[in-house]
């Protein structure tokens, strides 16, 4: 018996929901050459999948299916990398938390984030954030500006990674920061 739970999700819908959940920009580019339609799938501006078919809808479905396969392969490869290197896992997934922990441990004020830029079309906004910390011994750190990202959280994480690297260089071998 077929139920909604056992029915497979349509690839176009599955890809749409996945990209929304990951705060990634999804775009389809369709073109026709003769009687063959070509559909490209772009995620955050990068081509992930492509397919050709006489029917445009079928080409879109096949391109979405191809893109899902590529994205799932990338996710499993990323999971294997983070499992191998636990330190890297903490750095990439919890960068703002790590930065906050360092500030608490060294009795510094919390990091200050500020929006540098917010732009792009409504369906594919990009955010750029900067972060700095007031260290008790040397005053304010340099302001670290992150990469443009599709969400505020990711933009803050991008800036935090750069500040963590800066703090690592400046405070290496100084466990108390003094």
Automatic annotation (TrEMBL):
SMART domains with a match to the protein in the record: DSRM (SM00358)
**Alphabetized UniProt keyword annotations:** RNA-binding
Top-rank taxon, per record: Eukaryota
Natural source organism: Zea mays (Maize)
Q: Name one Pfam family in it.
A: dsrm
Q: Name one GO molecular function term.
A: RNA binding
Report the protein name in the record: DRBM domain-containing protein
Annotated DRBM domain ranges read 10-73, 94-169
Q: Does the record's keyword annotation contain RNA-binding?
A: yes
